[in-house]
Amino acid sequence: MFITKRVLAVMVAGVMFSIVSAKGVEAQDQSAIKVYADCAPGVVSPTAAPCVIKDLAPLVGAFNRTGELKANPWVQTIATETGTRFFGSKGDNLEIVCLRDSGNDHGCDLDISEKTRQLLVLQQLSEVLQGLGKPSPNAAPESGGTVMEVREFCLSETRATVTVQVAQKDTTPPTATGCKGRRHYLLFDNRDGKAAAITVETGPPEHFFLSANVPVTKVDELKYDTSAHSLVERKTPSSLFAALNYAFGDVVDNSPSWNVAKRLFITIMAWTSHPLERFGVGGGIKLWKFGDYLDLSTLTFFVARSWNTTDTAPTGSTLRVGTHYTSEWQVGLGFDVKTALGWLKK
Predict the structure, then answer these.
(1) Which of 75, 289, 297, 308 is the most exposed, fewest CB within 10 Å of its CB?
(2) Which residue from 8, 172, 138, 161 is spatially nearest to 60, judged by alpha carbons?
(3) How far apart (Å, rounded) are the C-alpha atoms in residues 222 and 287?
(4) Residue 288: which of 250, 266, 259 has the closest Cα?
């Protein structure tokens, strides 16, 4: 009974913490909306006076969170923690909220370009085919005050890579025309005048991806790569499965989200040498980056049931090859396509 009460107390405390956190997030979001709304009517006009923001923290804080902006104008923005993924498509409006120092009049002169891209799984398949054929080649301190300007860009591709960078001359009109879709927001912080280009991936959610699944039976089969800060096979794997995976979350989003449900996936795999002799099905999870010295974000962990053909020789009969399947559990790591190509070429 003591254990039950203790567990119940922890659950109640967790719920209360979630409610308090949610209210704090909502209050910060509303503050961010006010900051944006106070400036937005003037910043979209090139002749309007600069909009100097007095309290910058709510606005920057709102853009730095993932999946918490629900009941406000950012509801249609699915932004990652790194700001590199939007579920926008053709006809949507990408609104760049640019911050600059009041003394840098050209800090928000932007150049925005859009380049169409393929589905991730098709990009990976193309890498495989090319690889088998031939080798493949903190926020800045404010000085004179922070000014906010807005640039609108109408997406023209269903699935694309959009690059935003400072230009020698402003090539983006303040207001986009012909955008009838959803509105998305992207923060471009150039308060120090040295902002690097930002690249965002647009398009509908994608769930399929390829991997090279390697069963691991002993820890000493792996080693730590000091250059990549990740785990690699100590030698070329003797057993390698080509895997087609379906993730429950978006596979283009590379942000370090701790939402476990979105990182789970289902896998169908087959032995690269003889697919019909050894195959399996299972599931797994996409791994994370843990600090600066252990980056597992390119790896997946899987558990699968595999079936293997075995030779049978019934008493008094001729040997029959591969007429019987046996099954076993496999546990291991999934590596990216480029790593697998390196193994196959050895």
Answers:
(1) 75
(2) 138
(3) 16
(4) 259
pLDDT of 42 > 70? The answer is no
The residues pairing with 306 across neighbouring beta strands, listed in sequence order, are 280, 328
What whole-number distance in Å separates Cα of residue 251 and Cα of residue 31?
Answer: 32
Measured at the CA of 250, the angle between CA 248 and CA 256, to 5 degrees, comes to 105
Cα(278)–Cα(273) distance, integer angstroms: 9
Contact in structure between 142 and 101 (CB atoms under 8 Å) = yes
Pairwise CA distance, residues 149 & 158, whole Å? 27
Strand pairing report for 183-190 and 93-101: parallel
**Helices 120-133 and 337-344: angle between axes, nearest 10 degrees:** 20
- CA distance linking residue 151 with residue 316, whole number of Å: 82
- Residue 337 belongs to what H/E stretch? helix 337-344
Pairwise CA distance, residues 283 & 267, whole Å: 5
Closest CA to 269 of 342, 324, 340, 220: 340
pTM for the model stands at 0.71
Q: Which of 188, 23, 43, 190 is nearest to 104 (CA)?
A: 190
Handedness of CA 154, 79, 246, 218 (dihedral sign): positive
- Which residue, 129, 164, 147, is CA-closest to 43? 147
Q: Which amino acid is at 300?
A: T
Residue with more model confidence, 13 or 337? 337
Average pLDDT estimate for 91-110: 83
DSSP for 173-227, written as a single string: -SS-SS--S-EEEEEEEETTS-PPPEEEE-SS---EEEEEEEE---GGGEEEETT
Q: How far apart are CA 222 and CA 255, in angstroms?
A: 26
Q: What is the CA radius of gyration of the chain?
A: 26
Mean pLDDT over 285-310 rounds to 90
Looking at every residue in the chain, the average pLDDT score rounds to 74
